Amino acid sequence: MTMKFQGTLGLANSAAQSIALKYEASNTSLMETVLHEMTHIIDFKSGLYVETSDRNTDGTLDTVPALSDTQEFLDIYHTYFDRSDVWPYYRDNSSEAFAEVLSQYIMHRLFGSPYATYVPNPYTGDAYDPGNGTGYSPFAATEFYFASLFNKLFEYPRTATVVPYVTTITQKAPINGQVIYGAMPTDSTMTTAYKTIYVADPNKVYDPTGQTDVVKAGADGQKTVRITYSLDANNQLVATETVISDTAVQDQIITKGTQPTSTDTAVAITVVYQEVTDNSLADWQVKVVDNGQAGLVSTATTYILDPTTGVITPATTTTTVTPMKPMIVQYKVGVDKVTAIAYQTEYRDNPTLLKGTQVVVTPGEDGQTTQSVQSYDFIQDGANSHFTNVQYGNPVIIDAQNRMIEEGTYVAPETPDENPAEPSKPEAKPQPVVVKDTKKEILTVATPKEKTPVKEAQLPTTGDKASSFSAIVSSSILLVTGLALSKKLKKDRN
Questions:
Q1: Domains in the chain, start-ordered, CATH in brackets?
Q2: Among 47, 82, 216, 440, which one has the highest count of C-beta atoms within 10 angstroms of its own C-beta?
Q3: Which stretches make up the Gram-positive cocci surface proteins LPxTG domain (predicted)?
């Protein structure tokens, strides 16, 4: 089937061995279609068989023509046509590729028509013919194969008989008792077709298009034999063969470049990012701990030429000269911002405590302001990696609890009663604890946070001797105990 970008132009019937054509005004286009379909007929005539393996990689096991399914052609097809820069109709159909390339070769050989070229479509990924000769041409690249195939199909050896154009007739008078035999010599010429031999040149650059191949023309061999006749003693004709010319065949020699190639390719440094959570880095710090090293890979390619088919098979070896060492970048994500709020110390008078005595009612506790990390961007740019757009949330404030210290303002009477009553034992009270303060030593006792107001009736009144004596005794005991504890703490510190 012949297909162009605008549709189907011809059909070849394998059963009827016929060709159907769509009319075209261009004689050249019509000839291209005829040659394409004629190649299909030749392919069909070579035989049809059912595939047992998918050698043409079309995804099916089907009936295929023999000529376009030979291993020789399939090697050509997979090398030069099964590529992304070839029009899909010929890239995906080996028999269509076979028909089109032979028809284009004939048009190129007989009429000088240029080979079609293809370029990839950046939008669809499929290749198309730009019509200006630019791009890749699988037809030009495989010319060596189809030139040989054309010679095998159409330039086959022929044997010709040469008859001298000058004939001499000799007439003799009959002689009684004699028989005259025709004894005219005959010449026959046999032609031997030349073969194509491919030779590798290791000093010549490999050219996959074949355009730089050196071709030494071949010449058919010819041998001319002349047969003459004579009569033996028994009057019988005896033929004698004599070689009058013998030209040796000269094979066509095509020299292809197979010079080995070697290329060095740099392997770019990759970057490995490592997050750390210890104190080796500060918050939001980025550090390159290893600069890494670019790698180097050497690729050596050798080319092996098949002297019969001319197919060149590349063999590639890759060697790592310098291994790539990645760059290592460490970074630390910052934590929430926490700011301490120091507590304040407040003082208030307590008329129930002896003057000069301090008691911690509330010990005090620092507060804090916390701003949580809401979002950030980590720009991964190798050695230039950094944090940006760090956003903190609104501060969350925990107020400080101020320290409350009560100072005694009570002064005991100086003159005790002449006949003091037996002092009653004071109720057991928590022992004061001396607390270090920047100003002075402070006694801390377990007291309720809510201060109970001191009633005036609880204070000693004038004339109440028993109450006055009890208050004096209680205050004295409390004072002595506090002084003793204070001296003990000073002694412990010393």
A1: 27-155 (no CATH), 186-254 (2.20.230.10), 260-332 (2.20.230.10), 337-410 (2.20.230.10)
A2: 82
A3: 459-494
